[in-house]
Amino acid sequence: MALTWQEARITAAAPETPRVRRLTLAVGWSRPFRAGQHVDVRLTAPDGYQAQRSYSIASSPSRPEAIDLLIERLDDGEVSGFFADVAEPGDAIELRGPIGGAFVWDPPQGGPLLLVGGGSGVVPLLSILRHRAEAAPAVPALLLYSARTQEEVIAREELIRRDAEEPGFRLMLTLTRVPGGRRLDAGRIGEALAALGQPAHTFVCGANPFVSAVSDLLVEAGLPPQTIRTERFGG
Ligand SMILES: Cc1cc2nc3c(=O)[nH]c(=O)nc-3n(C[C@H](O)[C@H](O)[C@H](O)COP(=O)(O)OP(=O)(O)OC[C@H]3O[C@@H](n4cnc5c(N)ncnc54)[C@H](O)[C@@H]3O)c2cc1C
Questions:
Q1: pLDDT digits (tens, 9 = 90+) for 80-113
Q2: CB–CB of 67/24 below 8 Å?
Q3: Domains of the chain by range and CATH?
């Protein structure tokens, strides 16, 4: 069935990190969304110029009528700049979705789940983690998350709380722009696999160079390529 553009209203907006803004949108879906999927948004200027971008859904499918998007402001970013500076609660934007058939996780798929996110690439992984906690908390899951600094960690308090409270969940943070910081490397992948065991499903999301580098490391670590799913945000 072809997806049609619909009007979605922004019902709330709040800073998530210094560079990421959380927008809540009231949406009327023609079908339910699945954890990991994204939407397309389209902006139209008064002269008719249009810009269209994709944004992953951060919230859980258990709350389909109000989705959270987490949008990182990019320097000179056309659409992310609009959402960072201009969009406000009450505004309506054009949206279509849900989109994505491969980068999704449903509880019957089970686990263990290895989720690897770089920067805002953690957004669809948050939807998966939130859904897992509600619908399949016995499924083991590990989030390996690379961020620049502590203050740029998206959903930081929630992730730390889940790590402390959920027996099946483990958070491993890697910070790149702090003294002694490091990028995800073979050693860190090895630590994650030792902590989780062999994952049944691995989801990797972030900017193109991040996804390429991590996918190579995962295959070098022995994971079957067909168990690794990727989502590339561009860049
Ligand atoms: C399936 C999918 C899901 C996505 N989900 C999210 C999400 O949840 N949150 C989010 O913040 N973004 C997400 N993105 C990225 C988003 O679609 C836009 O590409 C991003 O917001 C930049 O758009 P812009 O108009 O602000 O920048 P543009 O004006 O298009 O580009 C500005 C500059 O940034 C560079 N650039 C563009 N995209 C990126 C990028 N991702 N990383 C680094 N540099 C880039 C461009 O080359 C250019 O130099 C997703 C992308 C895809 C394909």
A1: 999 999 999 999 999 999 999 999 999 999 999 9
A2: yes
A3: 6-99 (2.40.30.10), 107-232 (3.40.50.80)
